[in-house]
């Protein structure tokens, strides 16, 4: 299992291998470099906490339990409550992923984000009901994908390598490699048209039943 015909990571092998076989120290160093070598970058903090939680899942039971308690405490008090970022410890995040703007970023368990991708504020990556398992109900995002602020990606979809998801786009179908998905542009109403629209929306109280 690897890349499918759309250039994505339907089974998350690339990102999973990167996140699970690379040494934790290497992943953290790459994250630090990716976030402009800033120790105070909230996106870096969110990824560091996630990396440690994900690493703990593969450790022996005593270490796993200790890491789980510490991870849950820091993740809940700081990353979720203070930063507004929710990343499940079972989410699969590749190498050198950047969280450029950290507020209101949500990544569920088993979602896959490929290497060198960029996330921005207000992103929701979610699952849908109806799949046999949660693992098959979440987006799998390829390498070097750019996701704009306010974007929503839901369901068992594949976003191919190098794709761009525009601001406020609502994506529930596959996006081919190198493609762009964007929301419709804002509709501009001139003052006269806006007034006419408001007038049509007002109820007519002169009518009798």
UniProtKB/TrEMBL annotation:
Catalytic activity annotation: L-serine + acetyl-CoA = O-acetyl-L-serine + CoA
E.C. code: 2.3.1.30
Transmembrane intervals: none
GO MF terms, alphabetically ordered: serine O-acetyltransferase activity
Entry keyword set: Acyltransferase, Repeat, Transferase
An example Gene Ontology CC term for this record: cytoplasm
Domain of life: Bacteria
InterPro entries for the chain: Hexapep (IPR001451), Hexapep_transf_CS (IPR018357), Ser_O-AcTrfase (IPR005881), Trimer_LpxA-like_sf (IPR011004)
GO biological process: one example: cysteine biosynthetic process from serine
Pfam families noted in UniProt: Hexapep
Family: Belongs to the transferase hexapeptide repeat family.
Record's protein name: Serine acetyltransferase
